[in-house]
Each structure stands twice: as C-alpha cells, then as structure tokens.
Amino acid sequence: MLRALASIYIEGQGLSRRDVFKVFRVCAHSSPASEQTVLSTDGAKKSNAKETSYATTAADSGGGAPPPPPPPRPPPARSPRVWSAFAALTAITASLGGVYIYRKMNGDVDDEKDTKLSSDEREADAGETALPASGEALPAHVQYLLVGGGTASFAAMRAIRSARPDAQVLIVGAESALPYMRPPLSKELWREPDLAARAARPDSLTFRQWNGRRRSVTYEPSAFYTPPDRLRDGGAGAGVARGWRATRLDPVRHSAELAAPGGATHTLTYDKCLVATGARARRVPALRAAAAAGRALALRGVRDVARLAAALDDPALRTVAVVGGGFLACELAVALADRLREDGKRVVQVFREGAPLAGVLPRYLADDVAARLTEAGVTLLPEVEVTGAALQEGGVHVQLSSGARLDAQLVVECVGVEPEVELARASGLELEPRLGGVLVNAELQARSDVFAAGDVACFYDEALGRRRVEHHDHAVVSGRLAGENMAALAPPKPYKHQSMFWSDLGPRLGYEAIGIVDSELPTFGVFSADAVGDEATEPHALAVGASMGPSEGVAEGPSEGVAGGPSVGVAGGPSVGVAGGPSESVARRAGPPRRYERGVVFYVREQRVVGVLLWNLFNRMHVARQVISKGEFEDLFEVAKLFSPQEED
To answer: Which positions fall inside the FAD/NAD(P)-binding domain (predicted)?
Structure first.
C-alpha cells in the first residue's frame, strides 16, 4: 500500500465505497511482451515496470510478435590493414554520431528538411496536386492497396513490410503531403514561427515537443518510399500516390478506381485492400456563408494549419472565435491565446455545454479546465450556440442563441468529425447506422480481402461492445493489426487493444484516458491531497454555467466535497472519505474553483470500470489497461493507490 488514507483527497460521483462493487472475478491481465504492474485478487501491486503511453506491442493489438530476422551471414575475412582502416573509420563515425545524438537529445539539432526538396516535392507543396500527375505512372496491380494517407495506413504498411519485405504496397492519399501525425496540429505547432509559410510545405515541417526535442510532422521522408513507377515495373516496396482519391472498390473483382484533382483517372487491381479514409471535420450550418468567404475555417489537416496561420497573421485581426467545447477546441484555444497574446489579440471560445470538456469530464474537472483556459487568456462563452452569421467588412457578426452578438474577424469551427464513408458506400460495404463508419468484424475485415482501420472502422470490442474510436493510438494499433492480418503469415487475430488518448492544455496540464470516457457515466475520482486546493482566478473565469444539472452540485459544510452525476458522491475535509447516495443533491459550491493537479478518475457502467482518466499522471497506462481488463472491483479507492497519485512526475 502507499501512503495513509489522510494523504489522499477523493472526488467521486454516483458511488458509495461500501457494497457497490462485486468482488472482481477476472484473472489478472498482463502483456507477455514486457513486465507489467499486475493487479492481483487482493489489489496489491506486483511490479512497477513502465510501459509507453503509446501502446504498440503485438500483444496489445491481439497479434503475435513479428518473425525473427534471418541469421546474419558471416563477414568475409579481412587483412590486418583492412581491419585497421575499418577500425579508424568506425571510431570517426562513432565520434561524429555521438556528437550529433548528444546535440539532438538536447534540442540543438534542427531537423528541417526544406533545404533539400526535390522538384516533385516542391510541386506537391505548392497545393493539393496529384503526384504522380498521370495514372500511367501508377501500377496496374499491387499486392496491398491502402486507401487513405494517414496514420492507420502508415501503420498497416509498416506491418506488411515487416512481415513480407518483398511485398508491393501502394498508399493512396487524397492529401498531397506524405503520411503525417495529426496530434501536434492543435498544440505544439502553434509555438512555431513563420508557421503559415512552413505549413504550406508539410514534407519539411518540424516542431519542438514539450520536452524540447525537435521532430518532423511526417513519419518518414520521401526517400523512405518507393516511387510508384518502380512498383509499376514490378519492383517491391511501399509507394505513395499523393493527391489521389479512391472513388470505388469492386470487392468481387478486386479492383479500385482512382481519381486525381486534375481529372486523371486510373484503375488497378489488388490482392488485399485496406480502407482507412479517416474522418472529416464537421461544419456549423449557420457559418456556411462565412466559410465560403474564408472567414470560418476548420482544422483537420496540415493544409488547414497553413490557412489558419496565414489568417492569424492579418494585421487587422483582433478577435478569433473558436466554436466548440471538446478536445480539439480547448487545445487550439489555449495554443492560439498563447500565440496571439503579445499582439493584443484575443481568443473567445463558444460552446453549448456548461463548461469546457463537460461531455467527457466530471463537472469538477470541467470547472478546473474552465479556470485554466481563462488564466491562459481565453474568454469563455458557455451554454450558447451559433444560430446565425452575417458577413461584414473585415469580419463576421456571429449571432448566439443567448441573443448576444459576437464580432470576430475569424471563426474556427471545432465541433467534431464524421467518418468519410463515401468510398465504402459506393463500394457496397456495410455501414454502421448508429455509430457511423464501416462495419468490420473483430479481425477488422469488412468483406473478403477488404479491411478497415482507424477512424472509419466500426469494430467489435469484446470488453466494451461495438465501438468506433477517433484516437491516434487506435489508428496506430488497428492499422498495424489490419496489416498483420492482411499479410496472413498467421491466422487472423482479433482486435483486443484498448486505445488510449491524450490531451495537453499548455505545458502545465496533460491528461491521458482509456476506454469509455463519458461524463454521463458515474465516476469515482481520487486526487492527491497536496495537489488539490482553491486558487483565485480572474472574475470572468467561471462564466461557465450556473447549474451542474437537475440533481447535481457541491456540498458545503464540515464534509465539504465536489459532486456531480445522477447519484452524487464525494466528501473531503478533516476526515477524508466518500459519501453519496442515489438521490443526493446539494447546492453548487461558491467561491473560486478548486484546482486539481494529480489524480485518477474511474468511469463505471453497470458496476464495471469501462474508462480510466489520468490527470497529470503519466507512464501509468499499463495499470489502466489492466483495470479495464479486470473490470469489477470491491473497492476502487484501493485500486486508485496503484496509480500512485501522490507521486509527482
């Protein structure tokens, strides 16, 4: 066990510590790939080995380890003179490499690649053009066709090439950029200077991470990929058709029709195909006129970053309105406020919920986020929706459901995404009517030799039921498993991975979560006592809604605590403990919001833990995975101690 009960501060919702959970009955789950912290039947901690929060082991995805490499051939005999020269060359190389690695680890090496772009890359950077421009340069047949140029396709390609190095793989992506990562687009990228010009050349775009290290947005440079015409001539490798879109598949004939923006078309056949078309940004109907005039933008791809960065550089810009209260909207609002602060420009966030992230966080944490956003310079307008917009010279009048009007020079729409299913619909693939996306089985297969992964796949989760997930980690692991199943070196494996996601609201708050994270579910939170306290904020920090719901609130008095949810429950104070009942309802706590620095929140459905949120706690995702796997516990307070919330990272 860790510290005494008095060193832990508890926040809970809808749960009592006594007689609520059944005695867990599922055996401990651990990955055979590495040592893990294992939950035993007495709740004790067996080991404390770390796992990366971005899970990529074959065991997590339901797949096996890749086949071992063939034994290396013995080197030919060398003369003493050759050995001496080789040793000298090795020493020089090691010295130079050591200096480079040292500088890179300390953030001194700038991995900008924009000084050595080929003519083809410069052409692709100029706009959404096709590369190659003609279908004549594309192969007539490939073994593996991956539709979509994002993370899931890239992960599938790596898995296929690892299993079958001599395979022919073609990635078909609608964007002219090489496959790249999306998480930095709403966070770290906005700390980069000259972003408008640099984001227009995504193949060479780099950014500095929170730890100070610089990395490229693209997963691999262009030299990593095989030119498509080499695939056409029968060579092995992985090529990318950039700016091309698949318009229809024929699963029976194993053929695909491709189209490019300039009107070029091409038809090819495949052995196996992956549909990883991802998702597109939803748009606000009331802002259509503003969008057509370039005054309302969305943020989904790197081209959107370039357009938004260019609009922010307009000297006439004074106010930016960010519409939405979810992950993307909050991340972007903080990033833009930090970028625009020195220029005296303001960021206003408009959302229909009572607090930012209220759809996923318990209300007390959503209030904490509201305070942090305000401190970061974001003006919050909660509980309103955009009902109309009128263009004006140099900006747009945004009409709100409250009757108020917001004048802004630029609006950024961050109201969620919807899966891109046009290809699937045109190809006769079955779609999931409630969750959206392509319906696939546990092996991620939609039809014979047609698979789907990433945002567009609606898969069956053995633990949590049918789901569709829009997380980076899910794209990585589902894409990799689809690639392994397509390579078919072993029998198909089911997708059992519980994907995680993370979010950063500036450098002081980061959180990770796994499973189903929904504020409509009862929650049970445990926070370190030395990391919870009241903190004064600006007067407008809590302009986020006067009510926590029909029967929710925060108690005042000797057993003060935070509450939320239909069956509320948490108490703090001199004797830390948990309180609550099915009909508890109290008035909202007055005064400044409470600040939560480190803790863990469990989301519960039918007495089973279905989601875990780690608040400013890192390198503990392996424990969260085992909690989700086991599911039912007698005492979640004891389980929370396994996450060591009192230990500051």
So the answer is: 143-478
